[in-house]
Amino acid sequence: MSDTRTNSGVDNISVFRKSFTWSVPGERVITIMTAGNLATTQAVISQLEERNKAPSERRPSILEEPTMFQVATHVGNLLRGVIEGRQSGPVQGEGARFTATMIVAGQIRDMEPRLFMIYPEGNFIEASFDTPFFQIGETKYGRPILLRGYDKGMDFEQAVKLLMVSFDSTVAANLSVGLPFDLTVIARDQFEPLHQRRIRADDPYFNAISSSWSEALRNAFHQLPDYRFD
Amino acid sequence: MSDTRTNSGVDNISVFRKSFTWSVPGERVITIMTAGNLATTQAVISQLEERNKAPSERRPSILEEPTMFQVATHVGNLLRGVIEGRQSGPVQGEGARFTATMIVAGQIRDMEPRLFMIYPEGNFIEASFDTPFFQIGETKYGRPILLRGYDKGMDFEQAVKLLMVSFDSTVAANLSVGLPFDLTVIARDQFEPLHQRRIRADDPYFNAISSSWSEALRNAFHQLPDYRFD
What we know:
Two copies of one chain form a homodimer.
Chain A: E1 5-7, E2 13-15, E3 19-24, E4 28-36, H1 38-48, H2 68-87, E5 100-108, E6 114-118, E7 124-126, H3 143-149, H4 156-173, E8 181-185, E9 195-199, H5 204-223
Antiparallel strand pairs in A: 1-2, 3-4, 4-5, 5-6, 6-7, 8-9
Helix pairs in contact in A: 1-2, 3-4, 4-5
């Protein structure tokens, strides 16, 4: 799940998609989510889609890499290349501003589903049994509920509910994160998204979560043992 | 409330008090909390206590400033001076590393209680009806529950309970925040702390909050409406 808000200052806010999915039905499905400098992440996505070529000549290489590991390597190399290209350009010393991070998720037929987090340096780490999820971007406000609420036995619908609560906490605390959200659920051995939706500001489910979570938190708080000065 | 953990890397963790209280019973009470570079904040506190003088000659000026505004101005000037002193010293370009932020709270007789947040630049803002509390340091993990749980009608004991929950979320997410915590409660027109305590790792109340909050959050989460894919 990703938000869509980008800003260069609170007086310059725009909506841009930060989640991208490619699939070859029956063969592979890949989702990439992005955080950080928008020009950097758009440049990477454009190169992945080979938008510099005529439409008839485009054969996105992530659809041809033999393994998800090689997909992640490819995305990492592109990301590092874009950031380095800007760092060595005519405007010096601005490298840090063009940084970005990505999450790459997907599965190729006859192999396991894989989930990677890619750093600006182009290297990456993979999710594991002990660390089953990643966050990028504005991670902190929404993290406590993920740490407390996540459970490996959750089904997809419960996991989406948890994401809604986590994003709600972030949106309440930071103006630079905002609706609409993009949601993509990938199930094992389906090779196309199980579920995809854009959650807009008027989404009744998200708004129900947001208001009932405030209430539920307050009730939970009141049930805790009280502190006494004596 | 403040934690006591300082670190220069996870392999170099120490316990230092970050909360300091001075009072002249019946006349004034002042508490200062610190976040940021420890050498900077210790230098400010040492100067406030005039530790460069013989004990018999110390007359800490914050105990003589006529108003809390002047106390905040004095602390701000000291803080800025310490940071600038380091920036212009023999090791150049390290200014950003020596930054620090402070909260100054207190009351002087015949005046209102005041609460200030002091920036590394030495200027400060004051709490108000609309913004009744401040956080410094690692603020984000613990902020959502403060935003949702805080209520101007709370008594001091409820507010302490809320702080325990907020600190618990932060401790669970960030190794660089840790027990013991220092707690100081200042009530109007008392001119000495109403309540002061160090909360240690074996504190039964904090541990009860920590474990029952996990449970309460999960229950609250399960009470929310479920997401459905159809």
